[in-house]
Every structure is written in C-alpha cells, then in structure tokens.
Amino acid sequence: MPQLTQIQETRRGRWALFFDGAFAFSLDEETFLAADLHTGDALEEWRVQDLRARSETRKAVDKAMDLLALRDHGAGELYQKLCRRFDAHSAAAAVAKMQELNLLDDRNFARRRAAELCAKRKSRRAILDDLHAKGIDRDLAEEVVAELYEHEPDEDRTDPELANARALVERHYTDKLAAGKWQQVAAALARRGFSHAVIREALSDYQEY
What we know:
3 domains, three-stranded antiparallel sheet
C-alpha cells in the first residue's frame, strides 16, 4: 500500500501529500482535516484515488465560483468550461454544487442572454444558436426566445426581428444598396439568420425586393 511519507502546507493554504517520497496531489484544508491523515499512514489504493478525486472536485468547485463571479452562466456552459480543465465527474459535481447553492438558473440566464443579443441586432435564429452553444436545453431556448418575440398586435410596434434587420441595413448596407448590390445585402442578412420574408420587408423601404 502507498505510504504517506510527507505532508506539507502550501503557500495557497492547501496540503501537499507525498506518497513513497514523491509528490502526489494536494488537498484543500477541509478535505485534509476530514481525512485525518498523518505522516507514516499506509493507505489502500482506493482511498488514495478517492482523496485525489475529492481534490479535483474541490478545485472544480473553486473554479466554478470564479467563473460565476465574472458573469452568469448556464449549467451546460459552465460544465463545458470546467471540462476543459477537470474530468467529467468533477465538473458535474461542481455544477451540482452551484445548483445546490442556487447560483445557477438556466431560464433567467437564457432570458438575459437572449435580450442582450436581441439588443445587439441578432436574428432569432442566431439567438437560438447562441443559447444552444451555451448549453441551454433546446426546448427551453425556444420557449425563452418565443417569449422575447411575442407581443400583442399593435400597429405602432414593429416586430423585433424586422426592426433588427432594418437597423443592420441602415448601419452597414446602405452604400451597397445604393450601388445596386441587392443580392449581396440579402445574402449577408441571410447569413445572419434572418428569414427571406424578413429580408424582403427590410429591403422594401429601399426598392422592391
């Protein structure tokens, strides 16, 4: 069985464990104290691996906290980011811990993200694609985007999708339209995710499309 030959406190307040004279991994203080480890202890291999897994999970939790301190994340997006540095089990455990602490809310995250993207003149399809890429469940993403675009019939209120397309035309494509490059502009709007009907309406103010 591996023998714990040295325990050393690190500058970051963690406890470095050395088995059979070689550094193995470090533990956070809470995990270290709960393990009740002492120099000279002989540990079965399964226990060493369990301690290593606990160490990785705690690091993943700390990283999740850091990421959420910067900005909100959906659960799927947070999991994806954690998997870049940690194993799937540790990443999932960290996400579950964030949910337990009520630090994750996919619906509210999706609503805020969708509203931000709509304000940036993104198309409905582009917003859905972004939410999917952020790990938001497809059904939830479609529900949130539907909420964003639904409105009571009102002759004074323009459909947000059409308003965004028109704003993009005004900002980026008037020169091309003046030069007669209608198909180029239509193709550019299509690449941004706008439908043919919306493109037709957005360009109708300039010339019949």
